Amino acid sequence: PAPAPAPALEAAAAAASGDDSRILSLSDAALAAATSDQKIAMMKTLIADANRTNGPRGDDYWQKERCRDGVVRILKTAPDAGSFDRMYYRIDPSNLGSALGDVGAIDALLARHQAETRPGDWAGLGRYVRTVSGAERTTGNFVEFLVDGPSAIGPGLAAIESAKSTIHVEVFELQGDDIGRAFAAALEERLAHGVKVRLMVDEHGSDAEHDQAVADILDGLRRAGAEVRIVEPPLDLSHLDHRKVMVIDGQTAFTGGMNVGRDYQVDWHDQQTFVVGPAVADLQKAFLERWTEAGGRVPASELPELFPKPLIDKDGSAVRVVGHAGGAEDENIKAMYLRAFLTAQASIRIENPYFVDPDVVSGLIRAARRGVKVQVILPEDNDVAIVQRGSRAYYPDLLKAGVEIYEYQGRMAHDKVCVIDGRWTTAGSSNLDARSLRDNDELNLAIDDPRVAAYVDAQLFAPDLKRSKRILSYSPTWRERLDRWLSGQL
């Protein structure tokens, strides 16, 4: 290959050096030649250096200002909103103010790119999501939207029973009850027939090392031949694996909001999506990435078996598998939501249990103010009290903008679904709080198909609106106002 031009080599060396002086002295040509990942590395170096400054005066102050100017200069090289947001949402924007001080120039760049969005430009949204997240669009997918445990258990167990080569499962919470034991028994039956089973659970979600019932299930699976990985969180719980994915033989898959246990399949209102088609390969890749990060291994000789020729539905749906890496590594799903709100022309319907992200709330308010009909369904009886109180503190702002707010009655609503303009749907594991949008590993499907949107509207939103109480006015308590701020940090 031809040697890289000098500016590109200069940019690569600066990005790798971790030297802020070297980064700040880069020429315009070198910055223009830098890759997106190199620019991100440079900005992280500058932000880390700015964080080390302490004083409001003197050298420390001027160094912070120099680092801020460097970050702005790098962000200005983004040619479009997708390129800008790919960088912006990988430098932990929630902490930019504390690191850099006045970030008005960065906010102005963000607002300028947002203003370029054209409502109704769904092809543009697709290009944006691909640039930000790397998620490719696949077509020819069969998508079945499953609401509540009774509709999900049968297809899930049938898929396990049909497995001939591999079953891969990634789940946040495995409960040690009759549902969890039945799930394990189905896996053990396939293990007895030579099927390879790999199971990954999050320790915080499943309490796998302290809940004896869960430990017994996992020990039984290990004895039966399953490979089991427990994802250990950091001490501050700032990075959890919250995804829910099951891939069978590399050809069929399930993903959504449901964990495994009575809460999710029996007691709560929840949702899962069954997928057959090319998108399954992306779900398989997402599982394998996390499996490897958790210390698991997959022999190279097995890879062809894990990625067979996909089953194509010629009249199927266009799907993107949008993953989000936690630990503030990226904010792909948040970026997708905010851009989708800007793309909306007529309607936004959202159902989500943990709804306390201020940027999401602001995005919905902006949409409502320009005439989009926005409906939000939240649980009346949330299992996380601080989040419920925090959500309710946003009600006056939402109501003033014309957003319709509903509280689902009777049981906990745990589903995480959004339909926009009757054509674009996202559903998956991500809540609309800081823990999901910044800290956790999450995964959502983005489906561009009016038929799927119509089905979701009919099977989820229409009945749920009837089961909900509309909130017409609300005055938050002091505790709710406090928890609005607190829950935004959790």
Describe it for me?
This protein is α+β, with helices and mostly antiparallel strands and 490 residues long. It has 23 helices and 15 strands. The protein has helices spanning 6-17, 20-24, 28-33, 36-51, 58-75, 81-88, 96-100, 104-115, 122-133, 149-162, 178-191, 203-206, 212-224, 262-267, 279-293, 303-306, 332-343, 358-369, 385-392, 395-401, 434-439, 450-466, 478-487; strands at residues 138-147, 166-171, 196-202, 227-231, 245-248, 252-256, 271-276, 317-324, 347-351, 373-379, 404-408, 417-420, 424-428, 442-448, 468-471. Strands 4-3-2-5-6-7-1-8-14-13-12-9-10-11-15 form a 15-stranded mixed beta sheet, sandwiched between helices. Strand 9 (347-351), helix 18 and strand 10 (373-379) form a beta-alpha-beta unit.
Kindly list the characteristics that best describe this protein.
about 500 residues, 15-stranded mixed β-sheet, 23 helices
Summed up:
The chain is of the alpha+beta class. 48% of the residues lie in helices and 18% in strands.
- The backbone outline, from C-alpha atoms, is globular
Tell me roughly what share of residues is in helical segments: 40-55%
- Mean pLDDT, rounded to whole units? 95
Pick out the low-confidence regions. none
Query: What's the number of extended β-strand segments?
Result: 15
Number of helices: 23
Q: Strand-residue fraction?
A: 15-25%
Cross-sheet strand order for the largest sheet: 4-3-2-5-6-7-1-8-14-13-12-9-10-11-15
Question: Which structural class do you get from the secondary structure elements?
Answer: alpha+beta
